[in-house]
Amino acid sequence: MSQPSSTAVEPQLSYDPALPISAHVDQIAGLIRDHQVVIVAGETGSGKTTQLPKICLGIGRRHIGHTQPRRIAARTVAERLAEEMHVPLGDTVGYQVRFTKQVGRNTAVKVMTDGVLLAEINHDRTLRRYDTLIIDEAHERSLNIDFLLGYLKQLLPRRRDLKVIITSATIDTQRFAEHFSDAHGRPAPIVEVSGRSYPVEMRYRPLGPEGTDEGDEDISGGIVQAVRELGPTGDVLVFLSGEREIKDADKALRDARLANTEVMPLFARLSAAEQHRVFQAHTGRRVILATNIAETSLTVPGIMFVVDTGLARISRYSARTKVQRLPIEEISRASADQRAGRCGRIAPGICIRLYSEEDYLARPEFTEPEILRTNLASVILKMAQADLGNIETFPFLEAPDRAQIRDGLRLLEELGALAAPGAGGEATGDAGRRRRPARGPGDTSSCD
């Protein structure tokens, strides 16, 4: 619910010297002043997410939109920003996610999911309410992020006053820089900020042979063994593929009766109150069982150790069954490195991988962007709902195959899900025409 504020509280802008980005504040501020687009790249924990809005406020930007890929991240980032700036949440700093909005008339930094910003394009085509946009965690390359990056590329020549800051882990940053090249073909500047303050020791503890009926038990048992190996003190962050796997590991750890140890889950379907418990002060050791929402979007405080199962649920379209599935798959090397980077921030850390080093080295370098593993009919329908224009000429970072686009259009027209372009006899077979979704229930997943 929106909570307008009648009097503004003056925000306090200071930068934690312990955060690596703090050494680059003047450099980043200068680049934002001199360029329309700036890429800020850094490892997990570098301070990009919380310090960039303050840098923008410090150089006079007053209407900042700050996107996050997940609702839990949007809420916690807004709360953290408000705390650091000593202002009430909903005053200078507010947030909006699906079904919840806490902003006021004095809000200068609005943290939101990327789906919320995408939905705003429907009624604010030039995004006039913002003078600055921070697109956080762009390396995740979700559909929403790719839609926003393409739309902003089209918008920037018409909004010369708009500043855009793209943040990414140190993953393929040159692609973002080249995507936002200026009129002279010069790529956007990249600022790299280091993230990990202390070394992280990698340990490989592969589980038993794959393909056995005891696969889930092997993972839970491997987690218990890893937690025991890490000793009796120091918080542990365990990455698992999903909610069911978290519950299995939770039971195994409780049955192990580890002394002075609290086990806590962290996944998207938990209530806000349950999610907030992870960030509260505590005594004793805490073992947090998390999905990949803790990989980049959230920084769980006090983590000394990481246990990585090397698995995640990754949305993927099956051309054979014509169904969008959510199978458990091995993560990429980049994702594994992100997970390992969650420790080594407050002291030397240890990451135990429940797979072999050979397995790690054989994995793909990056996770495939969502648009390349999604049914294009779904992509086309979402673009039509957001009124993003012609899919064939839309400036994606990586454009889908044209033949697959035509197949997607044909399927939607056969299903009656997409109205033919124009009512005056325009050819429906031309994929270059703008189409609108037919009347009927829409997929709201892009407005998270």
Key terms:
448 residues; alpha/beta; Rossmann fold; 3 domains; 8-stranded mixed beta sheet; 6-stranded parallel beta sheet; globular; RNA binding
Counted beta strands: 20
Outline: globular
By CATH reckoning, the class of the largest domain would read: Alpha Beta
What fraction of the residues are assigned to beta strands by DSSP?
15-25%
Helix content: 25-40%
Low-confidence stretches: 211-216, 423-433, 440-447
Count of domain modules: 3
**N-end to C-end Cα span:** 16 Å
Largest sheet, spatial ordering of strands: 4-3-5-2-6-7-1-8
* CATH homologous superfamily label of the largest domain: P-loop containing nucleotide triphosphate hydrolases
Biggest pleated-sheet summary: 8 strands, mixed
Mean pLDDT: 87
Question: In terms of topology, how is this protein built?
Answer:
Layout: H1 25-34, E1 37-42, H2 48-58, E2 64-68, H3 71-85, E3 93-97, E4 100-102, E5 109-113, H4 114-120, E6 132-135, H5 143-155, E7 163-168, H6 173-179, E8 190-193, E9 200-204, H7 215-229, E10 235-239, H8 243-255, E11 261-266, H9 272-277, E12 285-290, E13 303-308, E14 311-313, E15 316-318, E16 323-325, E17 328-330, H10 333-340, E18 349-353, H11 357-362, H12 376-385, H13 402-415, E19 418-419, E20 436-437
Parallel strand pairs: 1-7, 1-8, 2-5, 2-6, 3-5, 6-7, 9-18, 10-12, 10-13, 11-12, 13-18
Antiparallel strand pairs: 3-4, 14-17, 15-16, 19-20
Helix pairs in contact: 2-3, 4-5, 7-8, 12-13
Q: What does this protein look like?
A:
The protein has 448 residues and is α/β, with parallel strands linked by helices. It has three domains: 20-193, Rossmann fold, CATH 3.40.50; 200-370, 3-Layer(aba) Sandwich (Rossmann fold); 375-447. It is built from 13 helices and 20 strands. Strands 4-3-5-2-6-7-1-8 form an eight-stranded mixed sheet, with helices on both faces. The chain is globular and about 60 Å long.
